[in-house]
Amino acid sequence: MSRARVGIVGAGVMGAGVAQALAETGHDVLLLDIDDRTLAAARREIVHHTRMRRLLGGVDVDPETVIAAVTSTTDYDAMCDVDFVIENATEQWEVKREVYPRLDRVCAPGTVLIANTSAHRITRLAALTGRPDRVLGVHFMNPVPLKPAVELIRGYHTSEDSVARVQGLLEAMGKRAIPVRDSPGFVSNRVLMLMVNEAAFLVQEGVASAEQIDDVFRSCFGHPMGPLEMADLIGLDTILYSVEVLHDSFSDSKYRPCSLLHELVDAGLHGRKSGRGFYSYALANEAIDEGGALAHHD
Amino acid sequence: MPTTTEDIRDFIHAKFPHVTIADEEDIFGLGFVNSLFAMELVMFLEGHFGFRIGNEDLELSNFRTVVAMERLVVRNVPAAA
Fold first, then answer.
1. How far is CA A192 from CA A230, A278, A290, in A?
2. Interface pTM (ipTM) of the complex?
3. Which residue out of A88, A118, A162, A242 is catalytically annotated?
4. Does A72 participate in catalysis according to the annotation?
5. pLDDT, tens digit, for every residue of A133-177?
6. pLDDT tens digit string along A260-283?
7. Does B79 touch chain A (CB under 8 A)?
8. Which of B58, B62, B72 to mutate to test the interface with A (most CBs of A within 10 A)?
9. Is the pLDDT of residue A109 over 80?
């Protein structure tokens, strides 16, 4: 397909990752967030992570070329002529509920709306619009540029044409789509969130430390990282919202969020992106600007 | 005054306090360090020593050992020698 123009709503960890993956594969990206600082931080993250691609054994991409393909905006009207919108707003229904009708109003009739949700039902999101045949779900995994596969979820009314168009976009991004049915959490998060939540209970109850829990998963099961390292990578706020969505959707107490997760999120300990979660991290040097110049250092 | 080598050692030790790592030892070969830690090493070296690692130096071999990282810093920040 020709070079697609893709709008991205939400410039958090996932939005920035999707923007990077699209820009690296030759797409024009319009990155929207309501907050200028979030947009600026996302641009820094994209440059930073593009530099790291080489270190992590990925493709050799030029950070300046990648960031030049990403245009930032706080104006929804700018989404009027994109081919696709990938929505990455926070996993709170109150937020999603506002975003979809707004996108439906400003986007061209042919634009397909893609929900990059890890928890919400696609059919419920599609019902917020007048184009339920052009709404479907793609659950990208973090870090987006490094993950070869996604979950692809049709809503009740999603058309074959929309599925085909999105599959074309995913192919152009080098991603393989694994189709799953529309159910809260789909496959990945229905299992993963329970595991992370239960691991948090283990820490809270003093059964084992975060290090010991992750060590069990790495050393005994051969997982590349344990559940709490992964939780820090995803973001503890996202984990908590996802567990809450599962809890609300299934009305099943097995999804009750661990109070330690609440405490960490309330305290601003959101994982890697905030420098601390279950572990502590060195944060990206904010003194290095988008163009790579060293603005200042101590 | 702490040396470059000591600063790098201290950073790694703070992350893995229960492990003793020799300066020539491959930290990625120890089995418990993943590639995300390589990113943290980049951020630490750039932030702590105040330089930007060039794209050509973003190779895992420059971050495998304390000695390799010390060489990388000295190449870029001669005053750190």
1. 10, 17, 34
2. 0.72
3. A118
4. no
5. 999 999 999 889 989 999 999 999 999 999 999 999 999 999 999
6. 999 999 999 999 989 999 999 876
7. no
8. B58
9. yes
